[in-house]
Structure formats: C-alpha cells, structure tokens
Amino acid sequence: MTQVLSGIALARRLEKTEGRGNAAFVDAQARTDPSSGAIWTSVGGTFAMFAGVGSPITQTFGLGIHLPLAAKELDTIEHFFRSRGSAIFHEVCPLAGVDVYATLSRRGYVPVELSTVLYQPIDVTTRIGSNPAVRVRQADAGEAALYGSVASQGWSEHPEVMPYIRDFAKLSLACATCFFAEQDGKPIATAALFMHEGTALLAGASTVPAGRRQGAQNALLDTRLQTAAANGCDLAMMVAAPGSASQRNAERQGFRIAYTRTKWMLEA
C-alpha cells in the first residue's frame, strides 16, 4: 500500500472530494426540488454552494487551497450568497495559508466552528473487524423514506434537527452509495459513501439508540471501504468534530489526522 503523507497535495485531493460530494448533493436537490433554488458554482478553484438558507451545505469548500485567493473572487463569492439572502460561510483548510485567514479577518469574518479531516490509504485487503450478527446491505433507490427515517432516529437526542437529517438522508440516495446495517432483520444504522477520482468520502453515519454498541458502524465502515477499494479508490476520508468520539473511533480503525479546518462566518 502506497504511503500517503500530509501536505498540500493531500489537502487539495481531500478538499476537492468533499467539494464534489456536496456539489453532487446540491445537484440532486435541484433536480428533486427546483423551487429550492439549489445551485453551486466554482470561483477561482473554490466551490460555492447554496442548498437553502440555513443549510450546513450552504458554504464554500477549498477557499484558497487550489489557487491563491484574490479579492475580486472573494467579492464574487460573497455576492453569490448575498443575492440569495444567505449568510456567508467558508470552511477553510489551514494549508491554504495564514494570508487567507488574515484576509477573512480583515473583511469582518469570525471563526465559528472547527472540523478535523482524517484519511487512510486503502486497498482490497483493508478490513475492519465487526460483529457477524450485524448484516450490511446497500439501500435501494426506492428505500429513501426508510433510509431517512432510520438516519433521523440516530439524532433523537436532538429532535430539533431530526426533520433536516431525515430529508438530507433521503436525498443522499440520489448522489451517493448508501447502506443499512441490520440486526435480526431490522435496520439499526445508516452510512453513505461518495467516490471521486480515487478518493472515498465516508459520511452520514447514524445509529438508532437501541442499536448502539452492537458494532453497526464498524460493519458499515468495513463494507464502505471494501466497496470503495473495489471501485478503484486508494484513499478514504471522513470529517469529525475535534477530539470527538467519532474522531477517536476513526483513529482506532487506522485513520490519521490530515488537518483541522476552521469555518468562518461574515458578521453582519
């Protein structure tokens, strides 16, 4: 297995994959609900996407990581969001450089969130140990409602976000490869896989409260890595809150930290 080290080349690959993954979601939303106004564009190598006011996907990815950040391009990006009545958010990789951070600060942006990006080289021999009593299968296109329901139940401790999670998960079937983990024939967890140019983006992990601590997410991770490798991917990535249980679990399974991003918001 080829060794992959942290650096600008890796950062560009990871940021491009996540940008493409979110752009695919926006395209799916636009097809499913044209009235949503969902749209994305690329400005100076930066993905700017609108999936509705307040959506966590309504932001940029890759700001300053692919090409130097120019003031006129930032003007264009800001107009893209303002013209749609949206607040302006940028998810910024630290390898974009301190000048990008300084530019955002001068323009009135403030940091509002951190996220850790993790990665792992993979091949067909990559395996994750899991509970044999948990069966994983791919979700069918006609199971969007079931997939959304199971995914949202994993957020039952936060009822205010359950409707969004349900709708987000349902739409994921139109732009990603999605899976159920089942125990005794009942779905207890969900997870999604998006692949772009050899990189596998792992997202959408959710387990219903009654199904936790049964190894469902390990089983889903194993299946997604196998699926990605079988489709020619040699690198997997995921995103977690810094220091979270999700990050620790990823590290236990061989993932390494590539970098920690900062999300910036333009103050009104």
Overall description:
- The chain has an eleven-stranded mixed beta sheet, sandwiched between helices.
- The protein has two domains: 8-116 and 261-266, no CATH class; 123-233, Aminopeptidase.
- It has 268 residues and is an alpha+beta fold.
- It starts with 7 loop residues before the first helix and ends with a strand.
- Helices cover 34% and strands 29% of the residues.
- The model has no long low-confidence stretch (mean pLDDT 94).
- Helix 4 runs antiparallel to helix 5 (162-172).
Number of strands: 11
Sheet bearing the most strands, described? Answer: 11 strands, mixed
Amino- and carboxy-terminal Cα gap: 48 Å
Strand order of the largest sheet: 1-2-3-4-11-5-10-9-8-7-6
Run of helices and strands: HEEEHEHEEHHEEEHEHE
> Structural class of the secondary elements?
alpha+beta
State the helical fraction.
Answer: 25-40%
For the record, the count of structural domains works out to 2
Oligomer: single chain
Mean model confidence by pLDDT: 94
Low-confidence stretches: none
Number of H/I helices: 7
Q: What overall geometry do the principal axes of the alpha carbons give?
A: globular
The Cα radius of gyration reads 18 Å
Strand content bin? 25-35%
